[in-house]
Amino acid sequence: MKLSFEDYISIKIHRTDLKLTSYIKSMLEPYNLAPEQNLIMMLLWEEDGLNQKQLAMKLNKDKTNIARMASNLEKKGFVTRSYSCEDRRSLELYLTETGSELREEVLPVTEEFNKIATGNLTGEEKEQLAQLLNKIERNFNEDHP
């Protein structure tokens, strides 16, 4: 049986991702943050001083992409980059005072975004959705490099 366009789960995920990205982009615009830059900031708010390799692994991005985003965050005054004492080839990112203060403004925005995105889901449905998305991701991690 051939699937119709609307039957492809990948299309549904893509459409949802476009809506989510567009919405969070508009919510973060007043803070001069792009959605992907915000992901780096959120990780640094949890653990300051991560290196670019760690960020790339956590975000499943290539190091070049992370380096570009880190450079932009540095230009905006949110982070500083410095070479690691243990490995001179490794750049670590540290929040500036401005970057640290931004946390108090941006985290409520991201929490509101998450609340909107999951607003009509029960706790059980949220858990199921997370499990299903993890399974889909694992399909590509295990079988398709």
Written as H for each helix and E for each strand, in order along the chain, the element string is: HHHHEEHH
- Report the count of strand segments: 2
Quote the distance from N terminus to C terminus: 27 Å
Percent helix among the residues?
A: 55-70%
Beta-strand fraction estimate: 5-15%
* Mean of pLDDT: 91
User: Mind describing the biggest β-sheet?
Assistant: 2 strands, antiparallel
Gyration radius from CA atoms, angstroms: 18 Å
Helix-strand category: mainly alpha
General form: globular
Individual helix count: 6
| Order of strands, widest sheet | 1-2
Low-pLDDT ranges: none
In short:
The protein is mostly helical and 145 residues long.
